[in-house]
Design goal:
Chain B: Residues 248-380 form the Thiolase C-terminal domain. The complex is a heterodimer of chains A (136) and B (386). Chain A is mostly beta strands and 136 residues long. Helix content of chain A is 6%, strand content 38%. Chain A has one helix spanning 13-20, and strands spanning 5-7, 25-29, 34-36, 52-55, 59-68, 76-83, 88-92, 106-112, 120-125. Chain B contains 13 helices and 12 strands. The chains are: A mainly beta (136), B alpha/beta (386). Strand 1 (5-7) of chain A pairs parallel with strand 5 of chain B, so a sheet runs across the interface.
Chain lengths: 136, 386
């Protein structure tokens, strides 16, 4: 899977420190006791523009999906996933058979460590699956 | 007193090269003024909106040589802008803060020798931050975000790709009767199903065109409108809906949109219900957008938009003529000005081969972002309450 090279931008250090260590780190507003997506621009409860960070479980369920077709690339399954803590993430699925795609499909975060650029997170079916596809 | 649209100006639309968005906008305003029987100098208000290029802004007043304006602003609610602009123009007229207001949209995202889709797409070797990561992983186009919404509707309500295709087919049927449409060759459901995947469940023929050009309308008071060149198109009601879907558990993303609140507000102001609507001109960036808007407006129950579309109601001869000019899917993509311009043409009876049999009440929608913003207008050839 070739996605190009990921770089930090000043708002992403805790997130990419997390992916490098195989941990899913997202926003969590301590004031409002509320989990937020890592790209949340502010806490909708109190307006804090720099809510804190916390490690999420990495467990998620599938909300909806699309199979993206681009010239000269294999089709890719992109999705909205709902973290067990509540926030939604736009994410890429890996190792999922298209016939298994359904609302509520249990998923788990998986981390990829490319040679160049930041590590990133994909989501795979949480149930045991027989074919373990390699991630390149 | 009521407000009315009294002028419509449309430049050439589509693969129109060599004119900047500002030049296109100026041309459209001049055309709209001439259509109304006015000179540009008769305008005392100008509302400006733009597409992806970020131009024009309020400098358009200078380009047009307009002096002593009493209202001048750039308006941006993404695809909901046209309906919003017209409502602000109407409120300005009704309050007396301006008397004659031009509302214009212009964009020129198409470049010669570049595929049209690239105008709204992203590509890079290095990606920065969260937005970059999401794009790098494969969500690089608005098409894919709408595909996520459409897929959720399908999974929840059993909506099918063939039902989406019915909208593509009926819209093209209308376009085949519109000399202004970019895509006029009729298509079948098989053509839709066999068109290439863009982002499943959306085929190429589920997606709108990309167009260069500009469209303007002129809004004034109904009393003044009587003395102008063309029959007025009366503004009966307007509304907006910005649901603020949060990306978290419990979100209705893809299932319901701002059309629900926007439509209810506009129809209440107009004093009508959906059963009074003769024609719909709906923002159709995707076939799915039409389907979910019809549900949210109440033309059918939630989840039944697919069956409603497949019933033939939306095409020529159907019970609810919808996107009678071919919409953004087949005619031209001028954001919210696409449905608004066709509503004006229909209300005036200028639809030629595509003229709807009854146009007493026309509902016009706008939709922006990823179903984040919605606007509605209710317009009529008749004065409200007449």
């Amino acid at each position: 899977m070739h996605i190009g090279v990921l770089r930090r931008d000043g708002r992403t250090d805790p997130f990419f420190d997390g992916t490098a260590a195989g941990r899913l780190v997202v926003r969590r507003c301590a004031t409002c006791d509320r989990w937020l997506a890592p790209d949340a621009s502010a806490c909708p409860g109190c307006g804090d523009e720099d809510p804190g960070w916390a490690e999420a479980s990495g467990e998620a369920t599938l909300v909806t999906w699309t199979i993206v077709h681009r010239p000269e690339e294999p089709p890719a399954c992109l999705a909205l996933v709902e973290l067990a803590e509540g926030p939604w993430l736009h994410a890429r699925l890996d190792g999922v058979d298209r016939d298994d795609l359904r609302e509520g499909l249990p998923l788990r975060a998986a981390f990829v460590h490319p040679d160049e650029g930041e590590s990133y997170v994909l989501f795979r079916p949480a149930a045991p699956w027989t074919e373990c596809r390699s991630v390149v | 007193m009521n407000a009315a649209i009294v002028g419509l100006g449309m430049t050439e639309l589509g693969k129109v090269y060599g004119r900047s968005p500002r030049r296109l906008a100026a041309d459209a305003v001049r055309l709209a003024a001439a259509d109304a029987g006015l000179a540009p100098g008769d305008l005392d208000g100008l509302l400006v909106s733009h597409g992806m290029g970020g131009s024009p802004g309020i400098e358009l007043a200078d380009t047009l040589g307009l002096r002593d304006l009493r209202l001048l602003a750039q308006i941006d609610a993404f695809g909901a802008t046209a309906g919003a602009m017209v409502s602000y123009a109407a409120m300005s007229v009704l309050s007396g803060s301006a008397s004659t207001v031009a509302c214009v949209f212009a964009d020129a995202p198409l470049k010669p020798e570049r595929p049209s889709g690239s105008a709204y797409d992203r590509d890079a070797r290095e990606w920065y931050g969260f937005g970059g990561m999401t794009a790098a992983l494969g969500l690089r186009s608005v098409n894919s975000y709408y595909a996520l919404a459409a897929q959720r509707h399908m999974a929840r309500y059993g909506t099918t790709g063939e039902q989406l295709g019915a909208i593509a087919v009926s819209t093209r049927d209308w376009a085949s009767r519109n000399p202004l449409a970019q895509m006029r060759d009729p298509i079948t459901l098989d053509d839709h199903q066999n068109s290439r995947w863009v982002s499943e469940p959306l085929h190429l023929l589920d997606c709108c065109l990309v167009s260069n050009g500009a469209i303007a309308v002129i809004v004034t008071g109904a009393d003044r409108a009587r003395d102008l060149a063309r029959p007025p198109v009366h503004l009966w009601g307007w509304g907006q809906g910005h649901p603020g879907h949060r990306k978290e558990r419990g979100s209705d993303f893809g299932l319901t949109t701002g059309a629900a609140a926007s439509g209810a507000a506009a129809m209440k102001m107009a004093g009508i219900t959906v059963s009074d609507v003769d024609v719909c001109e709906l923002y159709d960036c995707y076939t799915y957008t039409v389907l979910v808007s019809l549900e949210d407006y109440g033309f059918c129950a939630k989840g039944e938009g697919g069956a409603f579309a497949a019933s033939g109601a939306l095409g020529p001869g159907g019970s609810l003529p919808t996107n009678t000019g071919g919409g953004q899917l087949s005619a031209y993509y001028m954001w919210g000005m696409t449905p608004l311009s066709e509503a004006v043409i229909q209300a005036r009876g200028d639809g030629g081969e595509r003229q709807a049999p009854s146009t007493g009440v026309i509902l016009v929608s706008g939709n922006g972002g990823i179903l984040d913003h919605h606007s509605t207008l209710v317009v009529s050839p008749h004065a409200k309450g007449a």
